[in-house]
Every structure is written in structure tokens, then in C-alpha cells.
Design brief:
binds cytidine-5'-triphosphate, elongated, alpha/beta, Rossmann fold, 14 helices, 2 domains, single chain
């Protein structure tokens, strides 16, 4: 039997009837369900049917004396372990993304610090509208987990993405979110992570660098630390805070990053997420270069050592598991597989950067390539990518060190 209390917000849409089945599944699994029905939700299902299945009173009104007196929006959020919005209408998503709070559902969403799962449901054009997609991005960036929508025929007679995920899929997402973290599964393991860009100096004030934000690498370091690993994060210049429980070594150049990685060995695993500059200027001017009659200077580049390939090279100090990233705009699988062979690492996480705003954004689309197969991960937040990768690493290393 599972434990926990779900605050279930039912928005207005034909899919609201599926919230009844979801409630039944949750109750059957032993979870408490506290329903909130929006005014438009009440046009599709009745408070009575929700209450009957939840075995708990359905709340509908922000300003009801009886509802607020018994349990107001703050208390509701406090009493919940998780908030689920199903169906999440375009309107509810917009309100939550913008922090609007004009009814019980939106006020509760703004007043909570609990994890939130949304199951969007709307007409295909409403879903694909730039405004909804913008709101979706904001919500994902705020840490909201999204289930669905599915693609298929909808009540409005159209076909496409917008149909609410099936109750079973929402139920699975809830169970996964409630599962206690396997917090000790990497205890005693040392994992090295590289992250961020490198900056290659031209002179004391100019550098050659790239747009990597470091977000994905930092999220991975944080997720590994949450599983109990000792994490060394070798980081190029970023604007990010050091994740809790992570030892950070700041570097600027690829050469410094390589040296810091070698110095942090031995490690059980290494994850190279840094966007290392492939080249550096062959000479660094000791003083600032000046404009002059000779015209602009020409810069000769020399190749930087490949840190991932070096860590992957066999030898007594090689980490048991070496993971690299491949940012690709096309032929993701073939390019990722070629990179796996070329670098000699064990796994490559192919990253589709053709999608808008991956570099510096909050989401990633990943293809995990390893010997004998590949796995395509649905588009998810960089935090979710990190959690999933950390779990895979824990599995590969066989759990905590004895
Ligand atoms: N990497 C590294 N050291 C380098 C270059 C890359 O450790 N000097 C690592 C990155 O951290 C990443 C992977 O190698 O894990 C990316 O490989 P790379 O060949 O740089 O990828 P792309 O630039 O995407 O490849 P390409 O040059 O083929 O476009």
C-alpha cells in the first residue's frame, strides 16, 4: 500500500471524467485524495461523484465560509504531499505560469511548495498555440512535471496532441513522484563531473568561449550527490550556485579542466558534460592587443586535448564508467554512436540541439547510446534528465560501495 495525500485539482474539460477513474486508482492504491473542482470543472463532473470516489469532501470555492474555515487553500497545500492538476486546461496552465490567483485552484497552486504534476488537456490548436507553449516552458522551468498530452482524436472532432493522458499514465507519474529517493544507492562512490564552458584566453581581457550555461552538468552533479555519491564538479565559468554536497573545482581553460580532472582521480565514474573548446589560441598575449596600422591580428588555433577521450583511455586509473555528451543538430543516433566509438567512452547521451533553446534552456531531448542498444528519452527538464541519468549510473555501478 502506498502512502501519501494527493491534492487533485480538476479543471474544466471533457477529460474531467477521467479524473474520476484517476481518483479510483489512487484510492485503491491506498492514497488519500483531496479534490478541488474548478467552476468550469463542475460543468463536466459533479462534486458529488468526486467526493464519493475520493471519500472526501470536494472543495470548490475560495470564499466559502465552510470550506475556508475547515481547510483553506494554505492548509490544503500543507496537508498534501503532491498536487495533481487533471485535466490541466489552457486557462489553468496560463494562470499557474503567470502566478494568477483568482479561485481556489489557482490560489492553491500559487500558495504551494509541494511538487506539482499537470496533465494538460485541450484542443490541438490551443495546445500548439505559442502562448500555451510559452506557458508550458515556464511551468517546466518552475519544476512542474507534465504528463502527456496524448495524440489522438478529441471530443472536438479534431486529431492531434491535446488529449489528456490516460488515468493509468497519470497514476504511474504520481507513484514515481511519491517513491522515496534511493538516497544511498551511490554511497561510497566517487563521481567526477565536468560542466560549463571553457574560456581560452587571447590576452588578459579577451577570451574564446561558448554559450554553455552549465545547467545540465550542475543538475547531474546535484542528482548524483542526492543519491549519496561523493561528487567532484570541475566547472568552467558559470553563473550557477554550487549544488549541495558537491565539491567544486573552478577552472577556465581546457588544459586546466583536464589537469583538474586527472587530479581528482580515482573515480568510479566520470560524466563529461562540459562544452570544452576544441581549440585554443596558440599564443596568449601578456598585454592587451591594440588596434594598429597593421590591421586586425590573425589568430592561429591549436587543438585542445580531449578530456573525455583521455578519461576513457584504458589504464589502471580509468573510471569504471565514462559518460559523454554529444550535441547534435542532425543524425542524432548515427553521430552519437560514432562519437561513442571515437572517444572510447561507455555511454553517450546524444542531445538534440536542433530543438529551440536547448543551449541555455531548461529542457533536453536525450538519446542514450551504449553498446548493444539505445534508448530515446522523452523531452524533459534538465533536472529530470539528471535524475534519470544518476539512477542509470547507480544501476551500472551496482549500488552503494560495500
Ligand atoms: N569533450 C571533452 N574534451 C574536449 C572536447 C569534448 O571532454 N576537448 C567532451 C564533452 O564534455 C562531451 C563530448 O566530449 O562529453 C562532446 O564531444 P565533442 O566531440 O566535442 O562534441 P561535439 O563538439 O558535439 O562534436 P563535433 O566536434 O563532432 O561536432
Amino acid at each position: 500500500m502506498a502512502h501519501g495525500r494527493i491534492l487533485l485539482i480538476v479543471g474544466g474539460g471533457v477529460a474531467a471524467y477521467k479524473a474520476l477513474e484517476l481518483t479510483r486508482l489512487l484510492r485503491k492504491a491506498g492514497l488519500g485524495v483531496m479534490p478541488i473542482l474548478t467552476a468550469s470543472g463542475a460543468r463536466f463532473v459533479t462534486p458529488l461523484s468526486l467526493s464519493a470516489l475520493a471519500e472526501e469532501e470536494t472543495r470548490t470555492d475560495l470564499f466559502s465560509d465552510s470550506d475556508e474555515a475547515r481547510m483553506g487553500h494554505i492548509a490544503l497545500s500543507r496537508a498534501a504531499d503532491l498536487i495533481v492538476v487533471a485535466p490541466a486546461t489552457a486557462d489553468l496552465m496560463a494562470k499557474a505560469a503567470h502566478g494568477l490567483a483568482d479561485d481556489l485552484a489557482s490560489t492553491t497552486l500559487l500558495a504551494t511548495d509541494k511538487p506539482v504534476i499537470m496533465a494538460p488537456a485541450m484542443n490541438v490548436r490551443m495546445w500548439l498555440h505559442p502562448a500555451t507553449q510559452r506557458n508550458l516552458k515556464t511551468l517546466v522551468g518552475d519544476g512542474v512535471s507534465i504528463v502527456g498530452p496524448d495524440i489522438g482524436a478529441m471530443a472536438c472532432g479534431e486529431t492531434g496532441p491535446g488529449r489528456m493522458a490516460e488515468p493509468g499514465a497519470i497514476f504511474d507519474a504520481i507513484m514515481a513522484a511519491l517513491a522515496p529517493p534511493v538516497s544511498e544507492s551511490l554511497k561510497g562512490r566517487h563521481v567526477l563531473v565536468t560542466a560549463g564552458p571553457t574560456a581560452e584566453a587571447l590576452d588578459p581581457v579577451r577570451v574564446l568561449t561558448n554559450r554553455s550555461s552549465g545547467k545540465q552538468g550542475y543538475a547531474i552533479a546535484a542528482a548524483l550527490a542526492r543519491l549519496g555519491a561523493k561528487v567532484t564538479l570541475v566547472s568552467g565559468p558559470t553563473a550557477l550556485a554550487t549544488p549541495e554536497g558537491v565539491a567544486r573545482v573552478d577552472v577556465e581553460t581546457a588544459l586546466e579542466m583536464g589537469a583538474a580532472c586527472r587530479a581528482s582521480l580515482p573515480a568510479d565514474a566520470a560524466v563529461c558534460v562540459a562544452a570544452v573548446s576544441d581549440w585554443r589560441p596558440d599564443q596568449v598575449f601578456g598585454v592587451k592587443m591594440k588596434k594598429g596600422p597593421g590591421g586586425p591580428p590573425s589568430i592561429t588555433l591549436v587543438e585542445n586535448p580531449d578530456i573525455l577521450a583521455d578519461l576513457s583511455a584504458s589504464g589502471p586509473g580509468r573510471p569504471r564508467l565514462v559518460v559523454g555528451f554529444a550535441a547534435e543538430t542532425d543524425n542524432l543516433e548515427a553521430n552519437a554512436r560514432a562519437k561513442l566509438a571515437r572517444k572510447g567512452c561507455d555511454w553517450i547521451l546524444g542531445n538534440d540541439v536542433s530543438a529551440e533553446a536547448v543551449m541555455g534552456g531548461d529542457e533536453n531531448e536525450i538519446l542514450l547510446v551504449r553498446e548493444g542498444g539505445f534508448e530515446r528519452w522523452e523531452r524533459m527538464s534538465k533536472t529530470d534528465v539528471a535524475a534519470r541519468l544518476a539512477g542509470e549510473i547507480a544501476k551500472a555501478l551496482g549500488g552503494a560501495a560495500a
